[in-house]
């Protein structure tokens, strides 16, 4: 049974403190600060990560990310322990690395930062100021301490969090694939989106890479991640250039397809029946599909004048036709809400 002590220990007798210290030493565990709450390793199926962390710039290597994900998986969100440091204990066998790499891991992970910008400024977090390696009853462990001042960044989820399967993310063998998949999960699971846009410079900043040449960024980051996500997860992603500054690509749109619930290839064929670069063909196809819906003049104009909106509209339409989206009352009302028209009731009233 774990004894949890608050940060203010002025009313705790020194004899109790010494007793606990000696007890933990006798068990072979490192004698952590007694303002800490140990988290013993029990792997859970899913991780829940605050969106501010999903969108942050992180310095972790692939091995450090594995440790990081195990800690996110183990983090205690009980309000009773919010003001405590948390200590994460991970069996070395879970990391599949030798002693030399463990030494390097403990040395580097304690200096790695997470940069989390927000509307009012930015914050720089060092999640793990302490890392230890030890053995207990013949089993090797590493433990990492996360300070109580950092904990709120990870447990204050509210409704803004990213849910993903731990084993699925760990099956991805590059940092870029893992990070892009987490961003996809943030949009499709948390925000229920089928498409989202990203400025190239913002995406590269989040991923921690810098390619002046967009073709290099595609070849070294986007395409390998797209292929690995397709092979190892229940999702497929496509991305398309949707913005330029001069001749330079400045924005891309991601589209998310969930496998196993529908014919992904059929959706792609229907949405992109014409070449992606043949915008006239795509617009003509969209105009044909729009006739099915009872949209007003302003709604149709808003869709037809925005290529990103056209792609999103066609994706949702195909999912309705495939039966993945069940319509209870009105397909037009559902589509209008999905496209954001429901926020402006004038659109809904202005019908032909």
UniProtKB/TrEMBL annotation:
InterPro entries: Initiator_Rep_WH1 (IPR000525), WH-like_DNA-bd_sf (IPR036388), WH_DNA-bd_sf (IPR036390). Residues 51-184 form the Initiator Rep protein WH1 domain. One of its GO terms (molecular function) is DNA-directed DNA polymerase activity. GO terms for biological process: DNA replication initiation. Pfam families: Rep3_C, Rep3_N. It comes from the Bacteria. Gene3D superfamilies: Winged helix-like DNA-binding domain superfamily/Winged helix DNA-binding domain. Belongs to the initiator RepB protein family. This is RepB family plasmid replication initiator protein.
């Amino acid at each position: 049974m774990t004894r949890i002590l608050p940060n203010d220990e002025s009313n705790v007798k020194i004899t109790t403190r010494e007793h606990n210290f000696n007890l933990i030493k006798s068990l072979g565990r490192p004698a952590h600060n007694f303002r800490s709450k140990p988290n013993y390793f029990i792997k859970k199926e899913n991780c829940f990560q605050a969106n501010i962390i999903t969108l942050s710039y992180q310095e972790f290597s692939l091995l450090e990310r594995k440790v990081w994900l195990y800690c996110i998986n183990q983090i205690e969100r009980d309000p009773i322990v919010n003001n405590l440091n948390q200590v994460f204990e991970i069996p070395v066998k879970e990391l599949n690395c030798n002693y030399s790499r463990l030494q390097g891991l403990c040395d580097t992970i304690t200096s790695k930062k997470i940069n989390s910008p927000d509307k009012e400024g930015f914050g720089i977090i060092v999640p793990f100021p302490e890392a230890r390696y030890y053995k207990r009853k013949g089993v090797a462990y590493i433990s990492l301490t996360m300070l109580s001042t950092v904990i709120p960044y990870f447990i204050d989820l509210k409704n803004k969090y990213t849910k993903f399967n731990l084993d699925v993310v760990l099956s991805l063998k590059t940092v870029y694939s893992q990070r892009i998949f987490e961003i996809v999960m943030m949009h499709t699971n948390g925000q229920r989106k089928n498409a989202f846009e990203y400025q190239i410079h913002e995406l590269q900043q989040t991923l921690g890479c810098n390619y002046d040449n967009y073709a290099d960024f595609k070849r070294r980051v986007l395409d390998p991640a797209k292929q690995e996500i397709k092979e190892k997860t229940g999702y497929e992603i496509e991305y398309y250039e949707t913005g330029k500054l001069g001749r330079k690509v400045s924005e891309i749109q991601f589209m998310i397809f969930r496998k196993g619930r529908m014919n992904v290839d059929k959706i792609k064929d229907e949405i992109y029946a014409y070449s992606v670069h043949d915008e006239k063909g795509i617009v003509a196809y969209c105009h044909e599909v729009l006739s099915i819906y009872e949209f007003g003049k302003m709604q149709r104009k808003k869709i037809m004048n925005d290529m990103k909106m056209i792609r999103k509209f066609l994706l949702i339409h195909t999912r309705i036709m495939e039966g993945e989206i069940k319509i209870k009352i009105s397909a037009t009302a559902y589509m209008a809400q999905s496209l954001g028209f429901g926020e402006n009731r004038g659109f809904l009233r202005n019908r032909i």
